[in-house]
Amino acid sequence: MFFSIIISIPWIKELGEIVTLPAAIVIITGIAYIPGYLNAFMVVSLLIDRQPVFKTLSPEDPVSILIACRNEEKGIEATLKQIAKQDYQGKLYIYVIDNNSTDATSKVAQQSGKELRLNVQVLFEKRPGKNHALNKGLQFVKTKHVITLDADTLLHPQAVRRLMSRMSSAPKEVCAVAGAILVRNSRKNWLAKIQEWDYFLGIASIKRLQGLYQGTLVAQGAYSLYLTNVVKEVGGWPDAIGEDIVLTWAFLEKNYKVYFEPTAVAFTDVPTEFIHFARQRSRWARGMIEALKRTKPWQQPMVFTRYLTGVNLVMPFLDFVYTFVWMPGLILSLFGVFWIVGPHTLFVLPLTLLTNYILYRYQKGVFADLGLHIRKNLIGFFLYVLCYQMIMAPVSVWGYLQEFMRLRRVWK
C-alpha cells in the first residue's frame, strides 16, 4: 500500500487540478489504496492459513435440521433426499417449517419424509418472515446442535458429518460453523456462470480469511451449524432482512467464536434473472448495514473481530466510489480521457489473475477430497474477473439506499 501511494503521487496531482486535491485523495483512496490493501491482506492470510485437522472423524451426536420454506413444493423432496443420503451416524431430526405456503409444500414434505424413512415433522408459522419460521422450529429442538438449511439447498453426502466433525474438534467457545455453499445451476446462463466463480472463489475465500482469525462474520442461514443453547441465549433469529448476519454478530459480541468448514459442502440454485439477483444481493448489503447498526465494531470483545467487522464500515464508501467514480471513469477512458481509468489500469489484471489462481488451487484440493470435479467455465471466469464488480457495486449501493430510506423488507 505504501508503494502504491508513492507511485500514485503524480496521479493525485493531475486529478487534483481537476477535482481539488482533497477530492483526488478521497477518490484514489477508494479506488486503489483500500481495495489494494484488502486484497493483499486476504492473499497473504490465505497463504498462511492451515485448516486444523479433525480430532473426531465420525461424531454421533443427534442433530436437528431446520428447513424454513415458503412455496417450495417443487424442491423440498430433493432437499430431503440429500439428507437421507448423509453418511452421518447420529440421529437426524428434521423440522420443515411451512411459512404460509400457498402450494402443497407441507404435504410433499410429509410424504417424502415417510418414503425416505426420515424423522420429519412439519410445522406451521403464519407470520411471514424467515426469522419467525426458524424461531418456530427452534422451540421444538431438543438436541445440542441444530443445522439450518434452505429448502432449495442440496447437501453433499458428507456435509453433516464434516460440519459436526469441525464443531466436535473446535474449542468450547466456538458456537457455530458455517458450511461452504456452491452453485448447482451454473449452466443456466451467463449470470449463473459468473456466480459460480463468486461462490467458489470469492465468498469461500472471504470466509476462510475470517475463519483464520476466528471471526467468520456470517454463519449463513442457508447452511450452518449452531449450538442450540447459544442461539436461544441471544434470543433466536432477529427480525432483520439479514437475520443470519445479525445473529452471527450477536454471537461474536458475547465472546463466542464462529468457524468455517470449507469441506462441508452444499449446493444451491442461484438467481438467473438479473432482477432476482439484484434483490438478493441488495438484501445482503442491507443485512450488513443492519448488523453494523445493531452491533458496532468497537463493541466486539476480540481484537480480530473488531478489525473484521470494522472493515465493513468502509464497504459502502468503496461501493459508492466504484459506482459513481470508477465506472464513469471507465466510460471516459473509451473517449481518451484518462482522469480515473487509463492504460496503466491494465497492470491490475495480472495481479487479479494471480490472486484468483491462488484461491483456485486451494479450492481444487477441497474438491478432490470430496470426489468432486470443477466444471469448465472459462467464459464465466473471465466475466467474473472483468465485470463482476461492475454489477455488484451498484446493486450493493441500492441495498444501502434501501436501508437508509427504510423501504419495505422482503424475504424472497
TrEMBL record:
<feature type="transmembrane region" description="Helical">
    <location>
        <begin position="303"/>
        <end position="325"/>
    </location>
</feature>
<protein>
    <submittedName>
        <fullName>Glycosyl transferase</fullName>
    </submittedName>
</protein>
<feature type="transmembrane region" description="Helical">
    <location>
        <begin position="381"/>
        <end position="401"/>
    </location>
</feature>
<dbReference type="Pfam" id="PF13641">
    <property type="entry name" value="Glyco_tranf_2_3"/>
</dbReference>
<feature type="transmembrane region" description="Helical">
    <location>
        <begin position="20"/>
        <end position="48"/>
    </location>
</feature>
<feature type="transmembrane region" description="Helical">
    <location>
        <begin position="331"/>
        <end position="360"/>
    </location>
</feature>
<keyword id="KW-0328">Glycosyltransferase</keyword>
<keyword id="KW-1133">Transmembrane helix</keyword>
<comment type="similarity">
    <text>Belongs to the glycosyltransferase 2 family.</text>
</comment>
<dbReference type="GO" id="GO:0016740">
    <property type="term" value="F:transferase activity"/>
</dbReference>
<keyword id="KW-0812">Transmembrane</keyword>
<keyword id="KW-0808">Transferase</keyword>
<keyword id="KW-0472">Membrane</keyword>
<dbReference type="InterPro" id="IPR029044">
    <property type="entry name" value="Nucleotide-diphossugar_trans"/>
</dbReference>
